[in-house]
Amino acid sequence: MRVLITGAGGQVGSELVATFTASGHDVFAFDRTGLDVSSRDAVRAKVFELHPDAIVHPAAWTAVDACEADPDKAFLVNALATRFLSEAAMIVGASVFYVSTDYVFDGTKPTPYKEWDDVAPASVYGASKLAGERELPPGSTIIRTSWVCGANGGNMVKTILRLSRENETLSFVDDQRGHPTFADDLALMIKRLVEEQRTGTFHVTNQGAVSWYEFAREVLIASGQDPERVKPVATIDLQPPRPAPRPANSVLENAALRLSGIALLDDFRIPLARLVAQLSEN
Ligand SMILES: NC(=O)c1ccc[n+]([C@@H]2O[C@H](COP(=O)([O-])OP(=O)(O)OC[C@H]3O[C@@H](n4cnc5c(N)ncnc54)[C@H](OP(=O)(O)O)[C@@H]3O)[C@@H](O)[C@H]2O)c1
User: Fold this and answer.
1) I want to staple 11 with a disulfide (CB 3.0 to 4.6 A). Which of 65, 153, 271, 274 is the partner?
2) How high is the pLDDT of residue 241?
């Protein structure tokens, strides 16, 4: 297949490029300098030139707190840019695969979120990503994921390892829960959804729900350190408070995959061990 990938310089984008390329697809990958998706002219020129079968679209402004201070930029990059890609995709007959987020939910549900649950974003970032979902043409695919970590770019695994080198004790919140998800596993599932031309909304995460406190303990265990060095704190006690609210419950049930008979991604501890080993080699 001819696959156009946006945001190819990001955590998820870089793994998508590697995964699709390894499977022999014709990959047209662009980081922000190669294709600024917030330029309608640039999007149309690339899509009309390349005539992709699928557009995989992880590009986004992902700085959650910064989005609160600049909603116009958040809606331009995350929502309007998705409209530009959707318009162009419809003209050339390409399918759009949009990577979305747990932040479309407010996190107040006491149980995991299914694909069919009502959305209610509590942050500008979440609202702008939901607006992007709503720009997609019929027959598109929405892949909602959470707590992404990967070898490329900054993420919580790298942050926890750095803090463990710099401090005797580490504090992480124990009242926000989610499914940590590893970018290489996520990219493999997205490739499958593209190849099988699956449409609609899918929650795609690694399995195993934890709080950030529990996740930090798992990172220390995976790197051979004492997990008792991690101390739990409550979100309300974080100083200074962060501008954007985080969902207390970010746990996405992968119901659409499960009901489709597709094997879910591994427990997060498996790719976590792989990533920690990879980081320690570098
Ligand atoms: N990270 C998570 O925990 C998480 C959780 C749930 C969902 N997601 C979703 O997963 C997707 C990928 O996230 P990620 O973790 O890979 O984030 P990331 O590393 O920040 O990647 C996003 C990429 O988009 C690029 N980008 C920003 N503005 C752009 C523009 N105008 N045109 C083209 N590219 C642009 C960024 O380039 P620059 O760096 O050069 O600006 C960056 O390389 C996003 O859609 C995000 O909403 C992420």
Assistant:
1) 153
2) 82
Active site residue 103: no
> What are the tens digits of pLDDT across the range 23-74?
999 999 999 999 999 999 999 999 999 999 999 999 999 999 999 999 999 9
pLDDT score for 240: 81
Q: Distance between terminal CA atoms of the chain?
A: 33
The preferred substitution site among 12, 124, 136, 205 for testing ligand 1, maximizing ligand atoms within 8 Å of CB, is 12
Query: Is the pLDDT higher at 204 or at 280?
Result: 204
Please name the residues in contact with 170: beta carbons below 8 A apart, sequence gap of 6 or more. 160, 163, 164, 216, 229, 230, 231
Largest Cα span, the chain: 57
What band does 280 get if pLDDT is binned at 50, 70 and 90? Answer: confident
Q: What distance in angstroms lies between residue 57's CA and the mean position of ligand 1's atoms? A: 9
The residue from 98, 103, 113, 125 that is catalytic is 125
Q: b/e map of 246-271 (b: 16 or more CB within 10 Å)? A: bbbbbbbbbbbbeeeebeebeebbeb
> Residue type for 239, please?
Q
Q: Which residues line ligand 1 (CB under 6 A)?
A: 6-7, 9-13, 31-32, 35-38, 58-62, 77, 99, 101-102, 129, 145-148, 153
pLDDT digits (tens, 9 = 90+) for 112-161: 999 999 999 999 999 999 999 999 999 999 999 999 999 888 889 999 99
CA of 31 to the centre of ligand 1 (A): 10
In the numeric block, which tokens belong to residue 105? 């939910």
